[in-house]
Amino acid sequence: MTLRNHLHSKESHPSSDHTDDPKKSSSVRCILIKLAFFLFFVLIAVKIFGQSPEASVFQGSITDPQGEPLQFVHVYLEGTATGNVTNVDGVFSFSVRETGPHTLVASLVGFIPYKKTIRITPSDTLRFEITLKEELQELGKAVITASSFTTGNEEGVTLNPIEVVTTPGAAADIFRAIQSFPGVTAVDEGSGLFVRGGDISETKILLDQATVVHPYKYETPTGGVFGAIPPFLVTGTFFSSGGFPARYGNALSGILAMESQGLPDRNTANMNLGLAAASAGISTQVIPDKLGVNFSGNQSFTETMFRLNGQAHEFSQAPVSSDLNLNLIYKPQPGSTFKVFSFLSQNKVGVSIDQPSYNGNYKGDESNQLFNLQWIKLLEESEWLVKNSLSMNRFSKHAQLGGMDTKTRDITYKFRSDWEKQISSALKFYSGFEAVHKENRFSGKLPEHDDVTNPNASFFTINEQFDTRRFGAYTEVDVQAAYRLLLNVGVRTDYHKLANEFTLDPRLSVKYQFDKSTNLRASAGIYHQFPQPYEYNPQSGNPSLASQQSIHYILGFEHKTDLIHFRAEGYYKDYDQLIIPDNNLNLSNRGYGDARGIDLFLRYSEFLQSRFNGWISYSFLQSKRYQARNEGYEYTFEFAPSEFDITHTLNFVGKYRLFGMVYAGMSYRYATGRPFTPVIDAVKNAEYDYYLPVEGPLHSERLPDFQRMDINLSYYWPLKNNQSVTFYLSVSNALKIDNITDYTYNEDYTHKQPVYSNYNRFYYAGVTANINL
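User: That's the sequence. What structure does it adopt?
Assistant: Structure tokens below.
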């Protein structure tokens, strides 16, 4: 069969598989129709549901609590990039295509973020009127406690470091500068801190967590001539005259906590040459941002100064002092810092002393050493900030006057660990503990009767050694209880081995902020202070002494702006279990008393911020205690004004730029004369041929009021690259007021004579240079 025939045959006889089937053909057409309808509805659905919803519009305005519009507020939907910022009128507007529940956020630095959950439907137009509340103060940076003053470079301090150095009459001494604060009384020309009716032993001094057991140079019963720690080694201080938190420890009246210098940011040297002293210091970066050293030395030669001021005859040996200071800072890694602080000083003095029983020379020789290792670590994973300190303070003193000849030596070892963590924006937690070991050696000859140092009088020999341990722990929290309300709640416990006593001290501080500038503060708490180890000796002390106690109640108001800082506080301090002399036990805890008063502080501007700056402080104080009255051979007891009941204290400090870089400063201090107990009779000791005083009513008379004006003049000569030279001249007691600091008597106490201040009109001059290395 040919191909053509074959093809023809195929066309003429189709296969049975392709035979037309009407039923099957109808089924195919049905499927095609359904598919067409399906595709049609899919297209309609895509058209309808595939379109984006119509946009919703957010509009509104944002103001502060006073109704003033806020610009640059970021307004947005949380978790999205949709939003805008307010304009100069505080108005915002933006469109969103999101639907359903969302959170609207409005945020601006310095204000508490606004958040509101809303439900968005298409084509909505939502209108908002938002008021942002000011973030009054970040928790953890707020000073919640009352009666607190600070120095440093941080925002909110009372005085910055340069103001401490330039305060007339302060002699560049931190302690003397703090004496110009309210609540602190200066009872003589020294640097002792007498806080709200208490003596110097009632104020505790700390440096980088270590306790500075002997914080004064040329120690006296009223403190010392100067503070032991040079001011240029300190970057900041926290001073509290009452109501301080549990983490600062225990003291009956006040706390001064200092921080040493940190890592130097450049290599510098400073030199100072004055009439009485020469000093030099170096700050250097050994390894940038890793290792730095601050080193300084000071040598005093006061004889020239006293000769120039006509007072050399008052000294058998003019005061001589030398000290060396080393501060090493090492940062092995971010968030970790090691600081080694060491301080060594040697002081000698010989001064003429007139007493009823003896006229002669007092000789004193002191040595003071402080070593402290501090480790600060931020534990990144847990966000705990840990501060650990291991310190040793060694002190020795040899004192001679007439027949009195004593040697004192004490060593204090201390370990302290502090932990703090910001739990949330409304809660900060603090906790810590410390262990103290103290060794006290006391030997020599002491008079049988106080202040009777005549070599022919009766003395007793003492050679005692006392070691004691104290353990302390605390926990406290800062809480933002409400928008305007901050709380500090803490508790502290201590155990003292010699006293064999546990103490428990709860403390509470409340701060209510009216706005960023104005607040009301209140504090209350219990404070204990243990006796010194030598007071437990059986010859002149009492082995059964317990801790002393005070309770603080404080209410204060504060208003602070860029130029004006005003504070007013009222306080009441209740004393109990105070140590006083006892006829049978030598010493006992029978004393009690109280102190109450008002403190005012007003400051204008800061040094170099304006042409004039300065401050005024005023304190009113009434303080009484149950005390011992010496009647010759026995004591009687009275409730009378305390020894440091200074009713009125007024301080004024002012600094003014005369022209160019020439500055003048003036400070004035007025204080009510402090109380003293008159001697009304005397009893003769026939065996040793001297008289014993019989005291009249306790502190029933007062010294004349104290007044002193100090002025200074300085010229600041700036050089290139932040280098400078400063020339200064100061005049202490410029008005030459003969202030009476005490009274003394003749041999049989029949005639009273005033003891005048060593500082008549007193001149001092020097030059300071700061250079880059």
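Residues 643 and 675 are 6 Å apart (CA to CA).
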